[in-house]
Structure formats: C-alpha cells, structure tokens
Amino acid sequence: MKLVISIVQDEDAIDLVDNLTEAGFSVTKLATTGGFLKQGNTTVLVGVEKDKVEEVIKIVKENCAIRESLIESEFIPEPTGIYMPYPLEVKTGGATVFVLDVDDYYKF
Ligand code: 2BA
C-alpha cells in the first residue's frame, strides 16, 4: 500500500477532493501552511493500493495544473500623470506530491 500526499493550493483543493472521492478514493484534507511563504495551502492524503497511485496522480495533475492568470497590480503612473491599473501575469495552481510506502495499515 502507498500513501499519496499532495500539497496543493486552497483554490484547487475542493475540486480535487470532489474528483478523488467521485473516483472512489478515500481522502483526508488537511489545512496546512507553507513554511516559506507562511500562507495557507491544503494537504490531501490518499491511501491506495500500489496499482492505483498513477490514477491518483493523474487526478491531482488534472485539478492542480500550473496556469497563468491576470491580476491587476498596483496603479502605475502614465506619462500623462494618470494612474492606470497594470495587469500582471501570475502563476497559480501546481502541486507537490510525495508517494510513501505504507508498512502497516489498520482500521479499528
Ligand atoms: P512550491 O515548491 O510549489 O511549494 C508549495 C508548497 O508545497 C510549499 O509552500 C510547502 O508547503 C510545500 N512543499 C514544497 N516542497 C516541499 C518539501 N520538500 N517538503 C515539504 N513541503 C514542501 P511554501 O513553503 O510556502 O513555498 C511556496 C513556494 O515558495 C514554493 O513553491 C517555492 O516556489 C518557493 N520556495 C519555497 N522554499 C523556498 C526557498 N527556500 N527558497 C526559495 N524559494 C522557495
């Protein structure tokens, strides 16, 4: 048995958990915080048989792909003196995934 641990952005977590659940996987969702940015993220735990790991990773990839979004950054002064909003491209999404061996598994 394997434990797939996926650290994902909060905005991707709901769809990810829904799709994993619909595909028949048992899922635990933890509210976590990244050590570098100190911002909230979500850690999703899925215990599965070895032959199902690829399917779990595929669902994570589908729901947490890195994508670019446009946000409006600070207002930048134009030569005319008017302050205009300046659109900025930022990357969102993405996942950090660990696959661990599970020595023992009990349910009481
Ligand atoms: P990512 O590498 O995509 O990591 C996103 C989040 O995944 C991390 O949040 C952390 O919660 C988790 N994570 C990533 N690698 C891990 C690992 N080896 N072990 C345990 N958890 C892990 P943050 O720590 O807040 O990092 C957010 C983003 O900041 C990272 O995105 C990376 O682009 C950057 N980053 C992280 N540590 C850095 C460092 N020491 N120097 C420069 N940039 C760093």
Name the beta content range.
over 45%
Ions, cofactors and other ligands present here are: ligand 2BA
The gyration radius over C-alpha positions equals 19 Å
Distance between the termini: 17 Å
Shape by Cα distribution: elongated
Determine the oligomeric state from the structure. single chain
Q: How does this structure look, described?
A:
By secondary structure, the chain is an alpha+beta fold. It has two helices and six strands. Strand 2 and strand 3 form a beta hairpin. Helix 1 (10-22) packs across helix 2. Ligand 2BA binds at residues 7, 34-37, 39, 41, 94, 96.
Task: Spell out the key features of this protein.
elongated; 2 helices; single chain; 46% strand; 6 strands; two-stranded antiparallel sheet; 22% helix; 108 residues; alpha+beta; binds ligand 2BA; four-stranded antiparallel beta sheet
In short:
This protein is an alpha+beta fold and 108 residues long. The protein has helices at residues 10-22, 53-63, and strands at 2-8, 28-33, 40-48, 67-77, 83-92, 95-101.
Topology, please?
Elements: E1 2-8, H1 10-22, E2 28-33, E3 40-48, H2 53-63, E4 67-77, E5 83-92, E6 95-101
Antiparallel strand pairs: 1-3, 1-6, 2-3, 4-5
Helix pairs in contact: 1-2
The chain binds ligand 2BA.
